[in-house]
């Protein structure tokens, strides 16, 4: 060593080693990030932005402020006790007139109708009669529809003029706002969503439990067989895993329906009478059976990968110490498989609560999931704000479970196939 | 799983009971897939075995549902769409995913955990939520009801599979092989094509297969963002099951089961090749 200890180590071109190393690390960081960035950019545009757009839509409330600009402005300073003055009514008449001509009253009237049924007809009927109306508009409008003579209607308009609303979330949770801004439960016959949320969670838990009961012995068998045999049997697990979801759902329809294979067999064997065929599909049973079948591989694979790492000598040691087989299993083997149970359980549960296709095809009325209501509000009732709110709540639940999963197992440990 | 020689009689009985239980569960797993294969040759328009089929009367069997499939304009068009969308989104997802996986496997990748979680998220977020979100967003930017829209959506859904499989391959990649290649006089390009690529290819190919099958089997997103022009196979099946249940669907299902068997074999061969190249298994 010719250098004195005081002078720092340098590379061949005289740069201190530390600086050079830091540079190299920074360069490699940038290089790594540049490699990832095209994909990140793509996903942000094609996936993350849509999700945020949906979250935004669940609180976005443009209809009233855009459709009733003048009325909202005129309502400022209103005392909220008595009916507003004539100038508010004439502003409303103007707004409705303009909306009628531009043919965009639909959004406004549906939006108000979500809050207070009957508002749609109030708006459309009033708008249709506007042409023949003469000032003063206060009497004329109240004549056209009694709703305009109620203070609550005006409170509603004033409240919904705000650009953000919580009312979709309240609706998704079967709650609503009173005209005075208190949160109350919806009338009994309109409470659907909370029940559906609970049913979805409950049925998913049942499905998760069933996959565990069925998957555990299989994973145990596969991990204890010699590799040659277990590879062969593994194919039996992977085949359904790789088969189209619709195919698997279709086969369950073919098997379970009342004129299907299983009922036919039971009639032929004489277990049940021809007239008393079992209704095993288009109800809860159908959803649970089909989804247990579909999700079973997702339970077996994580369980298998955990059981594979448990040395068989542990059980032998426990036996040699005098434990009965069941005790050895319960005290030694089972606790070692708990990470696998957690991984498989959370995975199956997350996948299950988000399923849409299978419950829609084999669930009927009673086997429907909350996802089916998202689709219903997207496609049939066209209440997109409500669909977005339900989807956001479901997303929130899934993210919580995903974080737990990630903390316990780690996403990059997920093995496929 | 042999019975140990010290097992008692009760344990022996339990052993066979256990094997019996496992056999039943395997039957539950595979039985439904096998049952539809003969059903698809039914001469009658039913979803169950006819008397003639059970007595193995040749008259009970026919290829009419397959003929129905191959002469139906709707089905053929749906297949064509599925392949166009599947192949395009697979290529996009594989290219983007493989490049990203190379970056992610670098030791100096900043914020790897967070980025990985983000890249995996399309797999975790329920499809109905992705579909709703993409429907709102794609309608705004005029991508709804276009091929490009569906392809981009399916690319996003396929990406996690590519990222997972390729990073898994790269993580077991032995970097000393690169140094060995260099020390033997190969330049970086040659090293990449002769050493790195052959070892990584199985991961890339299985990632691509996953991405393709994801697109090929995806219903929910297509249901929301595709127009009648982009009707794919799963959509055709979906509406077939919902509207009129014709055994043509069973014929399609049978072909899809065969397709998945083919996929499975390919993957298994790739896995074996990968093991062999790493010297993990003989032969």
From TrEMBL, chain A:
GO cellular component term of the entry, any: plasma membrane
Top-rank taxon, per record: Bacteria
Localization in the cell: Cell membrane
Membrane spanning residue stretches: 32-52, 201-222, 234-255, 288-311, 332-357, 384-405
Annotated GO biological process: transmembrane transport
Keywords: Cell membrane, Membrane, Transmembrane, Transmembrane helix, Transport
Domain ABC transmembrane type-1 stretches: 197-405
Recorded topology in the membrane: Multi-pass membrane protein
Keyword Transport: yes
InterPro entries given in the database record: MetI-like (IPR000515), MetI-like_sf (IPR035906)
Family recorded in the similarity comment: Belongs to the binding-protein-dependent transport system permease family. CysTW subfamily.
Protein's recorded name: Putrescine transport system permease protein PotH
Naturally occurring in which organism (per UniProt): Halomonas chromatireducens
TrEMBL record, chain B:
Broad class of the protein's primary localization: membrane
Family annotation (Pfam families): BPD_transp_1
Subcellular location: Cell inner membrane; Cell membrane
Entry's transmembrane regions: 16-41, 83-104, 116-138, 144-170, 191-213, 248-270
Domain of life: Bacteria
Keywords assigned: Cell inner membrane, Cell membrane, Membrane, Transmembrane, Transmembrane helix, Transport
InterPro entries, A to Z: MetI-like (IPR000515), MetI-like_sf (IPR035906)
Annotated membrane topology: Multi-pass membrane protein
GO cellular component: plasma membrane
Keyword Transmembrane in record: yes
Chain ranges of the ABC transmembrane type-1 domain: 79-267
BP term (GO), one: transmembrane transport
Recorded coiled-coil stretches: none
The keyword Ribosomal protein is assigned to this record: no
Family under the similarity heading: Belongs to the binding-protein-dependent transport system permease family.
Name the record gives this protein: Inner membrane ABC transporter permease protein YdcV
Name of the gene encoding the protein in the UniProt record: ydcV_2
């Amino acid at each position: 060593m010719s250098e004195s200890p005081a002078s720092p180590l340098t590379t061949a071109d005289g740069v201190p080693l530390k600086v050079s190393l830091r540079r190299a690390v920074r360069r490699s960081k940038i290089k790594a990030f540049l490699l990832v960035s095209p994909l990140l950019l793509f996903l942000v545009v094609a996936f993350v932005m849509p999700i945020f757009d949906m979250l935004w839509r669940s609180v976005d409330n443009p209809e009233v402020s855009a459709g009733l600009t003048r009325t909202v402005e005129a309502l400022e300073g209103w005392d909220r006790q008595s009916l507003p003055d004539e100038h508010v009514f004439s502003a409303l008449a103007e707004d409705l007139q303009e909306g009628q001509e531009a043919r965009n009253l639909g959004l406004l009237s549906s939006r108000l109708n979500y809050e207070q049924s009957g508002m749609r007809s109030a708006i459309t009927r009033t708008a249709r009669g506007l042409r023949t109306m003469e000032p003063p508009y206060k009497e004329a409008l109240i004549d056209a529809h009694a709703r305009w003579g109620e203070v609550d209607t005006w409170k509603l308009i004033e409240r919904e003029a705000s650009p953000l609303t919580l009312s979709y979330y309240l609706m998704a949770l079967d709650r609503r706002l009173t005209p005075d801004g208190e949160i109350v439960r919806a009338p009994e016959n309109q409470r659907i969503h909370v029940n559906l949320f609970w049913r979805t969670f409950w049925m998913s838990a049942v499905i998760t439990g069933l996959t565990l009961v069925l998957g555990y012995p299989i994973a145990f068998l596969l991990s204890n067989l010699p590799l040659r045999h277990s590879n062969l049997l593994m194919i039996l697990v992977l085949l359904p895993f790789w088969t189209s979801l619709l195919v698997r759902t279709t086969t369950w329809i073919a098997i379970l329906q009342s004129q299907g294979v299983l009922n036919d067999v039971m009639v032929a064997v004489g277990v049940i009478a021809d007239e008393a065929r079992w209704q095993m599909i288009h109800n809860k049973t159908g959803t649970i059976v089909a989804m247990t079948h579909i999700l079973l591989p997702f339970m077996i694979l994580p369980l298998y990968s955990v059981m594979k790492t448990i040395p068989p000598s542990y059980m032998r040691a426990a036996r040699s110490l005098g434990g009965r087989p069941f005790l050895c299993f319960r005290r030694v083997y089972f606790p070692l498989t708990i990470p696998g149970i957690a991984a498989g359980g959370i995975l199956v549960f997350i996948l299950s609560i988000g399923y849409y296709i299978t419950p829609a095809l084999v669930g009927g009325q009673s086997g429907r999931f909350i996802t089916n209501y998202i689709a219903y509000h997207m496609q049939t009732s066209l209440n997109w704000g409500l669909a977005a709110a339900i989807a956001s709540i479901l997303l929130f639940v899934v993210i919580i479970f995903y974080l737990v999963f990630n903390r316990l197992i780690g996403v990059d440990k997920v093995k496929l196939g | 799983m042999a019975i140990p020689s010290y097992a008692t009689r009760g344990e022996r009985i339990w052993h066979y009971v256990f094997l019996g239980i496992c056999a039943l569960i395997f039957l539950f797993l595979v039985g439904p897939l096998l049952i539809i294969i003969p059903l698809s040759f039914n001469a009658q328009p039913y979803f169950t075995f006819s008397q003639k089929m059970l007595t193995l009367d040749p008259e009970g069997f026919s290829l009419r549902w397959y003929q129905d499939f191959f002469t139906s304009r709707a089905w053929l068009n749906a297949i064509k769409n599925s392949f166009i969308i599947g192949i395009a989104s697979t290529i996009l997802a594989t290219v983007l995913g493989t490049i990203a996986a190379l970056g992610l496997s670098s030791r100096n990748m900043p914020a790897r955990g967070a980025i990985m979680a983000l890249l995996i998220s399309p797999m975790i977020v329920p499809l109905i939520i992705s579909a709703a979100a993409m429907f709102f967003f794609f309608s705004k930017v005029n991508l709804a009801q276009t091929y490009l829209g569906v392809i981009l959506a399916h690319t996003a859904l396929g990406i996690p599979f590519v990222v997972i499989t390729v990073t898994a391959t790269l993580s077991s990649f032995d970097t000393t092989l690169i140094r060995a290649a260099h020390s033997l006089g190969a330049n970086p390009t040659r090293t990449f094509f002769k050493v790195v690529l052959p070892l990584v290819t199985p991961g890339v190919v299985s990632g691509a297969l996953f991405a393709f099958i994801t697109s090929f089997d995806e219903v929910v997103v297509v249901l929301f963002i595709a127009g009648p022009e982009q009707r794919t196979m799963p959509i055709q099946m979906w509406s077939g099951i919902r509207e009129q249940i014709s055994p043509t669907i069973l014929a399609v299902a049978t072909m899809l089961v065969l397709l998945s068997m083919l996929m499975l074999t390919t993957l298994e061969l790739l896995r074996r090749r990968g093991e062999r190249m790493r010297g993990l298994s003989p032969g």
